[in-house]
What does this fold into?
Amino acid sequence: MHKADIGVYGLGTMGSALTLNLAEKGFDVAVCNRETDWISDFINEAGALASRIFGRDTLQGFVETLKAPRVILFMIPSGAPMDAMIDSVLPLLEDGDTIIDGGNADFNDTRRRFAELRDKGVHFVGMGVSGGEEGARHGPSMMVGGSDHSWQQLRPMAEAIAAQFEGSPCVDHLGPDGAGHFVKTVHNGIEYADMQMIAEIYGLLRDGGGWEAKRIGDMFASWNEGPLQSFLIEASAAALRTVDEDTGKPMVDVILDKAGQKGTGRWTVIEALKLGQSASTIEAAVGARSWSSYKAARVKAEASLAVAANSDLPTQADLQQALEAARILAHMQGFEVLEAASEEFDWSLNLARIAEIWRAGCIIRSALLDELAEALSGDNSEDVLILAPALINRLRATMPALRRVVAASVSGGFAVPSLSAALAWHDSMARGRGTANLIQAQRDFFGAHGFERIDREGKYHGDWVR
Ligand code: 6PG
It folds into this structure.
């Protein structure tokens, strides 16, 4: 029997697109799906690529179609369905086989599954796939975690289907166990912050300036030619320029202002806090999505709490530079979380390489990531990213605009939670003497927690006035 190079289980949007991408790059792919009637429909629509795709109705037939040692990519919902799938497929596997979870999984689950399967001779890979359907079909960015053995099996296929940035594939083996899924989670956290900051600028222009959606879209389109060039600015410009066919109104004006979230942004914040970090720009973005769902309460509150303040709308140049500064700071916070996780889990993450594989294919791809890759590499690296020479000049040039934009927003009563979190983090970092000396005094006053002194080694208590 002719055997396939890889199996893809799960023919939803992402699984289907990855299968077609693999077949197009010359790999033979076995496919299977829980709803078996999807399989023939999918193959019938695959056109010329159908000859490289082998549909199988049963898990056993699917596994038997694969070359050994096998590589099976699961594109199914994360959580319990993945555990159930592992239980079903495990008896059919042999030593050296690799199963890949290509969904947005919680990296804690990935670490657990990796360890459980390793004891059974099977390799488990957690692989973050970014770029949506279009990326999966024509070139995603992929973040792979797992064993070297799995990476050797997967590498030729992954590099062939990945997005390319100046000839370099946007995929790499980033570390063991949960490293790939962790990096994807932080990618999504940065995605949340970037989307929120763009939405905050939109809100200022809409509510503070009375701008129509199309005008804002045109402005974003022009920004996309400069330092803010990125997929998310391009996507926002396109969204704002789109008209609803039914009403003739801008599409964004007929969309309810309640945002969904599947969990990766929240996971970034939770894991950051566990690691002693504060990715405040990302937390603000997650929080803003949560508040957005309180639609009825907000409508009521507007009647009694609305702020009747006046403020001059910042200039377009200020808005552009403010977004530039805040975007740099949000990325820095994301990379700080990656650095902390790398130490905690002993992953030896290569931060420059992560920035490199995010330069194309993924949702946060941008001109900034190219600069970050440079700033994070080799001799340019600093203890803290905020001091990287290439970025410090960019920050110095753009921070005054962020300060003016946040100040104008505060005066006018426009909420800019992510932009202001970026500013607060910058200002906290940019002050050598902070205020935690008083926090320490308070802690010692009520709990005898002790403190360090600036002039002597050791731990001390205060003889507090009471
Ligand atoms: C990507 C996206 C993708 C998806 C997120 C959206 O990198 O391709 O991040 O994974 O769009 O799941 O997440 P929310 O539904 O939480 O916004």
Notes: The radius of gyration is 25 Å.
